[in-house]
NADH:flavin oxidoreductase/NADH oxidase N-terminal domain-containing protein (Gossypium raimondii), 402 residues
Amino acid sequence: MEHGEKVKMADSQGTPTLFSPYKMGKFNLSHRVVLAPMTRCRALNGIPRPALAEYYTQRSTPGGFLITEGTLISDTGAGFPHVPGIYNEEQVEAWKMIVDAVHAKGGIIFCQLWHVGRASHTVYQPGGVAPISSTNKPISKRWRILMPDGSYGIYPKPRPLETSEIQEVVEHYHKAALNAIRAGFDGIEIHGAHGYLIDQFLKDGINDRTDEYGGSLANRCKFLMQIVQAVASAIGIDRVAIRMSPAIDHLDATDSNPLNLGLAVIERLNKLQLQLGSKLAYLHVTQPRYHAYGQTESGKHGNEDEEAYLLKELKRTYQGTFMCSGGFNRELGMQAVAEGDADLVSYGRLFISNPDLVLRLKVNAPLNRYIRKTFYTHDPVVGYTDYPFLNEEKGRQVQSRL
Ligand SMILES: Cc1cc2nc3c(=O)[nH]c(=O)nc-3n(C[C@H](O)[C@H](O)[C@H](O)COP(=O)(O)O)c2cc1C
């Protein structure tokens, strides 16, 4: 079967729904409701704990697809407290238990590889040094960083990477991808979105470099593409996914032409796929159509029409599986899949508060409301694994309708 071919249409008109199966390269997904990557700050001191196994298995379904929270590629990558890493043996060992638990429930799970770049603070850096970036411009005071004690701080001035240092960071992604496969993950997603390190190279509102990694679109895409190539050659392109958010200005990540930037990345991904004779697992694009993201308000948003146009163009141009994210509810997700605007839809906040979101969307059940103040707290249960399942509220009759 061809990559991306729809396996079976679920409704009587032959239109795919969120609950139609989907063949994502080598992975057979039983539905299109994906757990979006979400930082939850429960991996005390960077080590994934048993609480994470509980959290991810609660959200696993047979043939369902999950993406982990952003997981650090190196000890300079953190910008939140208690974020898990995948750069040392203790972390790799700890992840195994979580991945095994998800697999035991039939889930398919990718690890999101993350480096925050300048979205960090000296308190998170080994030796208390300045965080690295493409630039020496700090994130503006419009944004605040969550500090280890729960207070909010000002982002410090970063240190721009020397040209000669960039290859070492690429190598960290490469090693982290190999580690993820050793831990049993089905693949990895490269976090190229939301104003973090890779986005700090992609966007011309941040990247002010005068070397081969700055200036033209080709130069700004270079860091991402070197990472994609390194990782694809290590674990196989069909286990690699990319996340980007050309139109999101989170952490001052603005670009003068988001559509052109998105298309430039896609052109390179399409070309690489042709060269390697195989496709990436998927391309994941976040839309700015959501408010009060994280602890701050995202600033300007394009209007709905502009956003819809951008997304449709990116989807139309990318030759592979396309996942969208950002402000999707049941109706919008159904619409995106039915109209061919996305193959898969990832859900973030609604999945935080509804461990059985797949079931709830399927039977159109009411949803639990999420509690924002426990998004980034550290209790292994409260606000993490204690959101109720439908069968806890209503008895077993709804579950049996599946
Ligand atoms: C608490 C929280 C943590 C998040 N952490 C990450 C992350 O680690 N990596 C990432 O790519 N996106 C992250 N996101 C963004 C989500 O993946 C998602 O794109 C966003 O919440 C929009 O989807 P939604 O409207 O369904 O929540 C986070 C969002 C939330 C609410």
Observations:
- The chain has one domain: 22-291+299-400.
- The pocket of flavin mononucleotide is lined by residues 36-39, 69-70, 112, 191, 193-194, 243, 286, 290, 325-328, 347-350, 375 (CB under 6 Å).
- The chain is about 30% helix and 15% strand.
- The first strand starts at residue 22 and ends at 24.
